[in-house]
Structures are given as C-alpha cells and as structure tokens.
C-alpha cells in the first residue's frame, strides 16, 4: 500500500455568509505551499458529515485530517476520525485551524484562532507533533433509567447557568438575525454578554438553583444551591479561565467544577482567570482561594430541582444538549490524536 499523503481539510464554504470560503482558500494555498497535498471535504447538512467523512478516510490515502471552523466542525471532524477507526481500523491525527471565538480546544494547546493565524497553524500541522486527547462520552437517562441520548464531547459538558446563557444567546441571535440593521451592531460577544447578564441575575434570585448528587469514581458528593456543573477535558474555559491549573488533557480523568451561587462565580472570576496577577497570600487577604477541583474517570450526575424550575439547560462543547435529571460521563482514555505546537501550552 502507498504511504498516505493527503491532507483532508474539513470546512463549510457557506458558513459565516460565505466568509469561510476565503479562509478555506487561504488554508488550501498554505497547505499547498508546504506540499501537504490538500483536498477539501465540505461539511454536509443533517448530520451527514460524520459518516461521509469516515467513509472517505477508509480509502486509506489520508495522512491527516484538518478542521477549519468552530466547535461544531471540530466535533464533526473528530467523530468522523473515531468512526473510521472503530469501523475499519483507519486512524489519522487531527490538525486544527480554529475560527471560533473562545477556541478553548486550540488555546489550551497554543493554537490561535482566526484567518490571520492560518499560516502559523499550517506550519504547526506540517511539523506533525502529536498529542493524545481524552474524549468524553455522556449518556442522558430518562426517569426509568433508560438511555435517551448518548454523544461524544471534546472540551466540556455541563448543566446549569453556563448552558442557560448559551441557550439564551442562541435565541437572541435568531431574533437579531431578522433585523438587518441591528444585526450588524448586536452580534457575537455583545449577544453573549447580554445573555450572560440576563441569566446571571435570574440565578441570583434562586430561580435557577438546584441540588445535585455527583458521584466521581464511586465517591458521592452532595451539593445544594448549585447554579452550574461543568465537566472539563481541556484546560481553558471560555477562553480565559483555568479552574484546575494542574489538569492534563490526556491523564484519563476529567475535572468537575461545581458552582454554588454568585459568590462562587465571583471568586472564580478572580482566582481562575488565566492572567490572574494575585498570589495565594493576596487571595487569602481577600478571603478567596482556589477551591479543590475533584477529578475522575467516571462521573454520574443526578439533578434535584424544585417544581418551580420547569427546566434546566445542558451544553456539550458549546452546543445545546438534551436536558435530563440524570447523566453519566465517561473518560475515553487516549481516544483522539491531535497535532500541536512543539511546546504545547495555553495562550
């Protein structure tokens, strides 16, 4: 068999009202200059990307798959790689050309986002240094204990306030898109900030708080007054926060962050910021400190909410996810190979 040489670039040329097409052309040119034999694989609607990508990889001539886009394209590309490996034993690494806003996956390893970063990121891909990434598998259960939905994630899964902010942002974005003049000034981070404030103040009056039993590798932790539960695989959260500085993306464990009320959020905003200049002594004077973040391979989450809370929200890698009162998260150890800089570190 000839040695695989093709660099398969996965992207959506119609995304961002066509702006992605220019980024794809630039990426193809950069890959061509490095003689990486690029081939474009355009994403497909209706969930068809993953099986189609796996089928393309099973031909056996692809040396690497490169995603260009946001969290959704990352997830589809990674799932296609995993499906090809599970179905046909074909395993290839994934390179990153992120275009998203937060870009937690890329920044956790030192990969910048945006069109201007394409040339540098192609150089990283050409160098071909790989790192393992643990992958999460989450199962949602109904009241009878039957699995109603199961999916893979690559950065974070969560339930509560952050997922509510995401859902509100999506609704706001849909409404704004109907007003062309307003759409140009009220977009991206502005929409997110508005949704964050609305959801945050809702939580202050207790309308979004719940109790939870979180079992981590067989040890049960019970919490009350919870606003958010986040299970993290990579280091950065929201592009700017590091809850567990010693966490590793390939150690067979996920970190579990539980927020109880506005005090926890305010403390995290100060203590967990990646550019936090305060020492431990400074934080002690302020009455703050980094909380202990438990971690484990198997995590079970049971939600107990009052009748006045009609529903909570869940998210998976920045996308809305099916809400349930019972979840199980598993760490799939060393499940995806990614291409990283020679000195992978957060930025």
What's the architecture of the largest domain, going by CATH? Answer: Sandwich
Distance between the termini: 40 Å
What is the CATH C level class of the largest domain, in words? Mainly Beta
Give the SSE string: EHEHEHEHHEEEHHHEEEEEEHHEEEEE
So how many helices?
10
Query: The biggest beta sheet, please?
Result: 6 strands, antiparallel
Q: Can you tell me the CATH topology of the largest domain?
A: Tumour Suppressor Smad4
Total count of domains:
2
Q: Widest sheet: strand order? A: 6-5-18-15-8-9
Mean pLDDT: 88
Short description:
By secondary structure, this protein is an alpha+beta fold. Helix content is 32%, strand content 31%. The chain folds into two domains: 6-128, Probable inorganic polyphosphate/atp-NAD kinase, domain 1 (Rossmann fold, 3-Layer(aba) Sandwich), CATH 3.40.50; 136-334, Tumour Suppressor Smad4 (Sandwich).
Structure, explained:
This protein has 347 residues and is an alpha+beta fold. It folds into 2 domains: 6-128, Probable inorganic polyphosphate/atp-NAD kinase, domain 1 (Rossmann fold); 136-334, Tumour Suppressor Smad4. Helix content is 32%, strand content 31%. The chain has 10 helices and 18 strands. The chain has helices spanning 19-33, 49-57, 71-88, 104-107, 118-127, 161-176, 180-185, 189-204, 261-271, 280-285, and strands at residues 6-11, 38-42, 62-69, 94-98, 130-141, 147-153, 156-160, 210-216, 219-226, 228-232, 236-237, 241-242, 254-259, 295-296, 298-304, 314-316, 319-321, 326-339. The strands form 4 sheets. A 6-stranded antiparallel beta sheet has the order 6-5-18-15-8-9, covered by helices on one side. Strand 3, helix 3 (71-88) and strand 4 form a beta-alpha-beta unit. Helix 1 (19-33) crosses helix 5 (118-127), helix 2 (49-57) packs across helix 3 (71-88) and helix 6 packs across helix 8 (189-204). It starts with 5 loop residues before the first strand and ends in an 8-residue tail after the last strand. The model is unreliable at 179-201 (pLDDT under 50).
């Amino acid at each position: 068999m000839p040695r695989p040489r093709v660099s398969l670039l996965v992207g959506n040329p119609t995304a961002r009202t066509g702006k992605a097409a220019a980024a794809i052309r630039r990426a193809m040119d950069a890959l061509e200059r490095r003689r990486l034999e690029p081939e474009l694989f355009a994403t497909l609607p209706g969930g068809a990307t993953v099986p189609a990508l796996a089928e393309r990889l099973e031909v056996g001539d692809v040396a690497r798959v490169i995603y260009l886009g946001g969290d959704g394209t990352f997830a589809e590309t990674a799932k296609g790689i995993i499906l090809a490996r599970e179905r046909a034993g074909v395993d290839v690494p994934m390179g990153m050309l992120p275009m998203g806003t937060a870009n937690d996956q890329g920044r956790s390893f030192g990969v910048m986002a945006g069109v201007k970063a394409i040339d540098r990121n192609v150089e990283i891909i050409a160098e071909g240094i790989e790192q393992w990434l643990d992958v999460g598998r989450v199962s949602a259960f109904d009241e009878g204990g039957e699995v109603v939905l199961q999916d893979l994630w690559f950065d974070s899964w969560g339930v509560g306030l952050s997922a509510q902010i995401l859902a509100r942002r999506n609704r706001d974005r849909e409404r704004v898109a109907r007003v062309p003049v307003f759409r140009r000034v009220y977009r991206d981070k502005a929409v997110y900030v508005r949704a964050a404030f609305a959801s945050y103040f809702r939580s202050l009056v207790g309308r979004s708080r719940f109790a939870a039993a979180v079992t981590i590798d067989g040890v049960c932790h019970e919490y009350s007054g919870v606003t958010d539960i986040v299970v993290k695989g990579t280091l950065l959260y929201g592009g700017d926060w590091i809850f567990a500085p010693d966490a590793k993306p390939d150690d067979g464990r996920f970190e579990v962050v539980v927020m109880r009320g506005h005090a926890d959020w305010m403390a995290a905003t100060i203590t967990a910021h990646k550019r936090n200049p305060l020492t431990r002594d400074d934080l002690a004077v302020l009455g703050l400190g980094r909380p202990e973040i438990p971690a484990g391979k198997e995590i079970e989450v049971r939600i107990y909410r009052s009748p006045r809370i009609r529903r909570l929200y869940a998210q998976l890698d920045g996308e809305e996810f099916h809400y349930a009162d019972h979840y199980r998260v598993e760490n799939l150890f060393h499940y995806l190979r990614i291409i990283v800089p020679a000195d992978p570190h957060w930025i």
